[in-house]
Amino acid sequence: MENNKTAWERLALVHTKGRPTIRDYIPLIFTDFYEMHGDRYYGDDHAVICGIARLDGKPVTIIAQVKGRDLNENKDCNFAMPLPEGYRKALRLAKQAEKFHRPVICFIDTPGAYAGMAAEERGQGEAIAKNIAEFMTLRTPIISIVLGEGGSGGALALGVCDELAMLENAQYSVVSPRGFASILWKDASREEEACNIMQVTADDMVRLGVAETVIEEPLGGAHNDLDKISENIKEYLSLKIEEKCQKDIDELLKARYTKFRKIGEFTE
Amino acid sequence: MFEDFFKVVKHRFNGAEEEVSGPSFKCPRCQSTVPFERYEELLKVCPACNYHGRLSAKERISLTFDKGSFEEFDSNMISCDPIGFPEYPEKQAELRETTGLKDAIITGTALVKGQRAVVGIMDSRYMMASMGSVVGEKITRAFEYATENKLPVIMFTASGGARMQEGIVSLMQMAKTSGAVKLHSDNGGLYITVLTDPTTGGVTASFASLGDIIIAEPKILIGFAGRRVIESTMKQRLPEDFQLAEFMQEKGFVDMIVERKKMRTTLAKLLAMHTPEEKEV
Q1: Residue A199 and residue B167: Cβ atoms within 8 Å?
Q2: Label partner for A146 (CA 20 to 30 A): which of A110, A174, A185, B281?
Q3: B39: distance to nearest CA of chain A, Å?
Q4: CATH superfamily of B54-272
C-alpha cells in the first residue's frame, strides 16, 4: 500500500477520469447479473443500480451507487447523487434479499444525496432514515464497500452493514470537503485544508472504528489495473460473505448493532 | 404550567444568558416585529403569522411536562474531540458557560398528565443543536432505557444536522440513534417525534423521521438539504413555503401540526391511547 499520500491527493485519485465504477466491476466479480429497476412507488433512480447476481456461484443481492465514466453517463446517473426513489429501490431489494436469504453487498460511491426541490418534496430525509433503521435489523448478512467517495447521509443509507471495507484511496466523510469548508469557514476555496484535517481516508476509518478492512489498490490507483483491483475486491467479498453466512443471524445482528453503538467519544 | 413557564422566562430575562439584544422580536417568517415581552407572553409564537419560535430545553420542559416530574439522564456527559478539530474544545467550553448546557440535548423521564415517558429535548442555542457524540449517545441510551422499561419516547427535535467538528464520528450517530429507535419500535414501543424549528440535515435523515407519530409546530423549517444549497444547485428561487411544516404535511411527511398551547394536551391524549389500560386523560 502507498502510505505517503495526503487525503487531498487521494481525493484527486478518486476523481481521476478512468477510475473504475461499479459498472466496470460487476462483470469481473459476479456472474449472471440481472438488474432490477424501480422502487415500485415513483420511479427508477439511475444513481443507484440494484440487482441479483452470483458470487462464487451463490446468489447475492447487489446495491450500488453508480458514477458516470463520461459526461453523458454522469448526466444519466445524476453524478451518483441519489433521489429518494433510489434509496427506496435499495430498501426494496434489501427486503427481497432478506426474504430469499441472500446476502447483500452494497457499493458506496456518491458525493452525497441529491440536494434539490424534488428530492425534498419526496422525502429525502425520510428515505435515508428508513434505510438506516431497516438495514440495522435486516436478517441477512450485509457487506459494504466504499469504492470512491462516501459522502454524508447519502452514503450511510447504504452503509449500515456487518463489515465495511474501503478501497485504499477511497474516502468517507460527514460532508464533502468543499461543503465542510463552506459550512465551517464560510469559504469553499479552503477545501484542500478541510480535506486534510477531516480524517476521511481508509486508514482513518479503520482507526475510528467505522471500517474493518482496507482493500489494496494497484500502484497509482484502481484505474491502473482493473483486473487486479477487481480480483482484490472479489477475494475480500468471497471471504467475508462465507464468514458472515456461517454465523447465527441473531448474533450477527447483535454484532451489527454493537459496531455502530460503540462509535462516539465522550466523557462523564 | 404557564406560571412555571413565566418563571423560567423571567429568570432568563434577567439573567446573563439573554440572547436577543433588542427590545423586540423580528419574525424570521413574516418579518413583522413584536415587543419581546409580548413575544414571551405568547410562548414565543409570532402573533402575525403563527410562526413557532425557538425555545430553550428548559422552557420546553416547564411548558410540556408535569411540574417537577422531569428527571434527567446523563447530565454530566460532555464531548471529546475525535478528529482534533481546531478550537473545538474551547468553543464547547465557552458554550457550556453561556448556555448552561453540556451539549445540544437534554434527556430523561417525565410525566405528561401523569403518564411517564422517556423524553429528549434539543436546544438550538448549543452549536445549532448539531448531532455529535453526546447527542448520539444520549438519544441512544434514552431509547435503550425506554425499550428495557417498556416506556414511550417523545423527542423534541431541532438541529442544523451533523456536528461537522466531529467528522465521520458525527455521521455514525445517525446509524447509532436510528438503530436504537428501530429496536424500540420492534419491541412495540411508541415513539412520538415533535419537530421544532429547525429540524434539518442528518437529524431529519435519522431519528427525527422515524416516529410512529410525527408532529410539527406551525411554520417551522423541516428539511434534509438547506435552502441555499438547493437554490444554488437549481439556480432558481424556491417557493416561500418550501420546507415549512405545512408544506411537509402536504407532501406526506408530517402527521399533524399542533400549536404550542395545545401540545401538552395532545401528547397526553396520544400517550393515553397507546397504554394498555386505555385510561382517558
Answers
A1: yes
A2: A185
A3: 31
A4: 2-enoyl-CoA Hydratase; Chain A, domain 1 (3.90.226.10)
